[in-house]
Amino acid sequence: MDFSPYKALLNRLVTLSYQQDTETLLNSLLPDADTQTRYQLVAETNRLKAPCLRVLDLRQLFPEQCRSVFHRGLSHMLPPRLEQRFMQLLGQYNGEYTRGLYETLLADLAAMRKQPALLNTTSWHQPTFGTRRKELRLQFVTPVELHLPEGSIQANTLDISLHGLLLTLPAGLSLPDEVAVSFPVLAEQPEFVCLGEPKRFQLTPPAPASEHSHPQPDAPRQDRARLRRIEQDDAWGQALIRFIEQNRGRYGQNAEDLYGTTLAQCWGQTLLESGLGQSLFFDEQGCLQEVLCNRFGKKLLEFWRQETPGDLLAALLSPQRILAMAARQHEPVFLYSFRITGKKGTYYFAAEQRQLEQQQHFRQFISEGQRAGTLQLYHLSIRPVLFTDQITDNLDILGRERLSPLKWQLWLTPLPAPELTEPLPPNGRQLLPWLLSPVSGAINPVFLHQHPARKETRFRFETPAELLQDDTPLNGVTEDISVAGIKLILRQPVSLTLPAQVLVSLPELSKLSPDWNLKKLPYEVVNISKGGRILHLHAIDSGKGHGGSRFFTALLAQNQDKLRARAETTRQPAWMMWLTRQALQQLSGPVFLLGRNDGGFYVQGSMASPVRQRLMALLTDSNGRAQLGQLISRQLLQSMASALQRPDGKSHLVAEVWVTEEQPHSLLINPSPERQQQLLASDGRITVCLTIINRLQLRQLKFNVPEWQQLTEVSLYKTQLLEQSLAELAMQCQIFNITDLAQARGRLSAPAAAPTPLPG
């Protein structure tokens, strides 16, 4: 039945039915209604009065405004406006949280989201891209006993994990740096008796607010303490693991960490796939080793691809230049390059802006590049590679061998090059010091989506296996099989030098198939992972001559419909995930991710660049939160979004924002050349920001996030929130500080009237 004509009547019925009988109220308020209508209205009234157990958590939509609203055992997270409405509705529903109250709040929320949205503030996200706590935790309250020098004091846990605790303390209690802790109540159970023996814990300071997915109070609460276990004990560890596993289904609280990690990785992959930047990795000698290639990077690499004698990207970023940049990491480098095609070949030139200005060749270089029509400008930012990422523990031997030489990581971002209104006379001899020498050997870029190593279909199949290596038998079990190879899980780790040859026997299959010889089959170990517990085997001379290949060919031919094929589309090598996370550890500039809904644009996420302190200070408000609105107005953002929607093929748009630091501050968007000269000649300090905005098309993006599947298993609600936020992701804004570039450009005879378009 459609109750929309009776909405006002139902609101009155629900309010009055707590004091009077519903049937009596209907007789007086709607005397002409038939029996069927009256019955359905009574049923709807009872439904709206039924208790509701759904928690309202709106931190994803209002990240900086929500606060806890506790009511009868449920803790809601609501912004002030909806909190006021919540309290008002409680008065109408007799102080009870009902379905009617819940549905009314959702309707008010839908109305709020249709109102114009501002570029709201958001917490800076430090792009470390890892869960804050690597072990599972429970939100579980149980008494603990703190053994202090002056005596024992009882406290309560808020959450429990294998290596740490969060406690609530009595008022005014101050803990020392180390304290012994025991669980008296849990120790009463026979399987947790060992938890009654005190173990030493260390008091840890609260985590900074920037590491959390949601804002935390500015000052840590004095009645809470975080403890980390420093005294190792196997019995304690096994008891805690058993206790966590028994209660994880009901009290597990690791969904929040997984949600924050997965969301951050999706933001990072969005930046890697659709941004202008190109991430490159170099070894300790400064030689180029890996090129992480995105969509725009393909066009960027084509400019430097030379069929003979080699690839010139290594010449553009020579080892001498990389080592010189590494000595001054906090200074971004502006690198200019162009190519001239002559009768005898193509000549490439590249020079840094600082070097050109020191030798007074800056104008001549720009003039020659402009005359050739191939002038390029790159923003370079270099940082050391960090081997502290938690995913290094999951690298296999091949991944470790590939990544161990890496020392430096560099962001290469194309920027609009300056122009001269009147080029200088040709004088190419002045630029001979900047002529590049080709480097032999091609560079193979690493694409963000890797194809599996095994070409044939792999099937999940578990059967006991025995590995014979140097006459030492090792027992294990197969995880998946194919005609050409096996993935084998051993009960104990093994140490081998690759490539190694081993003999594999399948005892259970030998009993079931006595006609086949499945003992001492020769296989080659092509890779080892999980610390030597997982072996990747390839059949030696696979085909008709190999007993294992012939047996698995017959097995799959007869039982393929019964075996479950192992999906390859969502798998990604561990070394590839390590490369992507390393690329996002040190961004060359802050990045804003913007969503769009019925209310307009809103800031969905802000990724920080700690090495750009001046730029970060400019984009941070008085409360320490990211504020894009201090640089870009909503009207400018809307106009750039409209321009990107036009069918002219543009994927990125650029705008220059000139910020004067005099009081009061002023913003100028793409000022005229005359105005630029006036600003540069003034005594006030000027900051010039380049904003690169691109429209995101999520149907072209593929998120290979290892935590996604785990998040789906832990919390379907968090997965739905994540999918909704990604569906609203509409634009991306990268910001660079180009003050030095603007000052150098101002010393040209006549700067460009507006930023030139980006290459490609």
UniProtKB/TrEMBL annotation:
- Biased composition, class Basic and acidic residues, residue ranges: 211-223
Q: Which organism is it from?
A: Oceanimonas baumannii
Q: What is the lineage of its organism?
A: Bacteria, Pseudomonadati, Pseudomonadota, Gammaproteobacteria, Aeromonadales
Question: Which stretches make up the PilZ domain?
Answer: 132-187, 454-532
Region described as Disordered: 203-223
Task: Spell out the molecular function terms from Gene Ontology.
Answer: cyclic-di-GMP binding
Name of the protein described by the UniProt record:
PilZ domain-containing protein
Q: Which InterPro entries match?
A: PilZ_domain (IPR009875)
